[in-house]
Amino acid sequence: FCQSIIHTVFPPELRFASVKIFQRIFHWASSYCYYDITEIDGVNTNELYNAVQLYLSSSASITGNRLSLTRGLNSSAITFGLTNNDRLIDTYNGVQVIWEHVVTQRQSQSFSWRPLPEEKRGFTLRINKKNKAVILDSYLNFIMERANEIRRLNQDRLLYTNSRGGSLDARGHPWESVPFKHPSTFDTLAMDPSKKVQIMSDLKDFADGQEFYRRTGRAWKRGYLLYGPPGTGKSSMIAAMANHLGYDIYDLELTEVHTNSELRKLLMKTSSKSIIVIEDIDCSINLTNRKKSNNSTSSAVRSPEGLLTTEMRGAAGEESVNSITLSGLLNFTDGLWSCCGSERIFVFTTNHIEKLDPALLRSGRMDMHIFMSYCSFDSLKILFKNYLEYDEGDIDEDLMEQLKQVIDKAEMTPADISELLIKNRRDKERAVWELLEALRTRAEKKEKGNVINEEEQEKRALETNGFEDDEMFKKFGKQEQREEEFSDEKII
Ligand SMILES: Nc1ncnc2c1ncn2[C@@H]1O[C@H](COP(=O)(O)OP(=O)(O)OP(=O)(O)O)[C@@H](O)[C@H]1O
Ligand SMILES: [Mg+2]
């Protein structure tokens, strides 16, 4: 109204100045002050916007009259939110504040480094001037804390992936996310119970250790290396960790990342209370190149820059060389940048720990090395409970004894045993008997394989007059045995 009066009364050259003066008078006379919290702050996503949205979605469900309801793809929860340009009253410490969700169309851009969303979204907080000091600091901190809590309590964890490489989406995120629904828990995980207790208490110490990490001057992060043959539960363990702690997972696909700085950017965009995973780390990085560069570099540990180069074969079969270096990866896990957030867990998995560089394995980077072994007798009992709902004592003692005798010799993975049990889960007795049969056959094959290997080694030793390195024979024998194992697994 005032603006239209100004337009008619004042000549064009005075209009701008008069609008400014009127605005000042209005703000001075008004008993309220206003704060805008925009979704995108310059080029980055505004964390406070997300927190306010989450916080209001919990109170909006109770008090709002007109709400927008959303349910994400695959999500189990319905989220309440303010509709466009709608308001909500919130009370904090007896003080009333008003939130408004403001959505406006963005003017079309002639040129931009990256596309921005078509809508400009933001929240406006209106508070009484006299409550300004009381409310601002503590209320906004309270909102941030509440939002974190809601996120943690919310059963839907998020699984992030960097399938676009390091490039950003319209909202400035390099990560894409989906709800994380893996049902694996420490209860369902088949492994040595004492190891399980050790890992769980380590995780608990970590999660409760804010004061400890602050006092000792250590970054609040921890690294776990999970290693062992395929199908022994490494990925299941990561899911169990995330479910146990209520953390999100960032699954980092190293082959999609091209440079160290891209890697750093990805790290900067991860949130606190999260698990950053690199699966099959030995496969993500070409270790053969390391040897080449090794020759040209005097010390591997002192000057690791350029030691590792990741090679990626393009769809056309061309080779494009990625420039992620071991140094980049080491800094990712333990450099200054790794501390840009807090309460973060790094988990690397591999089938071949011997292929990894010792610098990567040292404490501070990988604090705990967890060997995921073939199925043991204790693990088998957990699988029986999971798949057949058998408790201890439900299976005949004699049968259990026979299983116990053969399980370690058979070297079968929990994944293989699970498959057998799933197949026969409607006929539980048959499931156990078939498993015993399979374990026996497998143990026999292993034993035979070992005898053949030993005979072969002796024969070769005679042929080479014992000059050849014993280790070479062991390796050779083992390799053949591995190949046999794989072909065997396919048959099962
Ligand atoms: N220790 C285990 N406890 C319970 N289930 C397991 C375990 N190990 C394997 N499984 C079952 O086998 C399947 C494959 O396991 P998982 O993907 O965790 O193996 P992995 O060690 O990550 O294998 P890879 O090295 O090939 O990635 C899972 O779906 C899970 O059901
Ligand atoms: Mg896996």
From TrEMBL:
<keyword id="KW-0460">Magnesium</keyword>
<dbReference type="GO" id="GO:0006950">
    <property type="term" value="P:response to stress"/>
</dbReference>
<dbReference type="Pfam" id="PF14363">
    <property type="entry name" value="AAA_assoc"/>
</dbReference>
<dbReference type="Pfam" id="PF25568">
    <property type="entry name" value="AAA_lid_At3g28540"/>
</dbReference>
<dbReference type="InterPro" id="IPR025753">
    <property type="entry name" value="AAA_N_dom"/>
</dbReference>
<dbReference type="GO" id="GO:0005524">
    <property type="term" value="F:ATP binding"/>
</dbReference>
<dbReference type="InterPro" id="IPR050747">
    <property type="entry name" value="Mitochondrial_chaperone_BCS1"/>
</dbReference>
<dbReference type="Pfam" id="PF00004">
    <property type="entry name" value="AAA"/>
</dbReference>
<protein>
    <recommendedName>
        <fullName>AAA+ ATPase domain-containing protein</fullName>
    </recommendedName>
</protein>
<dbReference type="InterPro" id="IPR058017">
    <property type="entry name" value="At3g28540-like_C"/>
</dbReference>
<dbReference type="InterPro" id="IPR003593">
    <property type="entry name" value="AAA+_ATPase"/>
</dbReference>
<dbReference type="InterPro" id="IPR027417">
    <property type="entry name" value="P-loop_NTPase"/>
</dbReference>
<comment type="similarity">
    <text>Belongs to the AAA ATPase family. BCS1 subfamily.</text>
</comment>
<keyword id="KW-0378">Hydrolase</keyword>
<keyword id="KW-0732">Signal</keyword>
<feature type="domain" description="AAA+ ATPase">
    <location>
        <begin position="220"/>
        <end position="376"/>
    </location>
</feature>
<dbReference type="GO" id="GO:0016887">
    <property type="term" value="F:ATP hydrolysis activity"/>
</dbReference>
<dbReference type="InterPro" id="IPR003959">
    <property type="entry name" value="ATPase_AAA_core"/>
</dbReference>
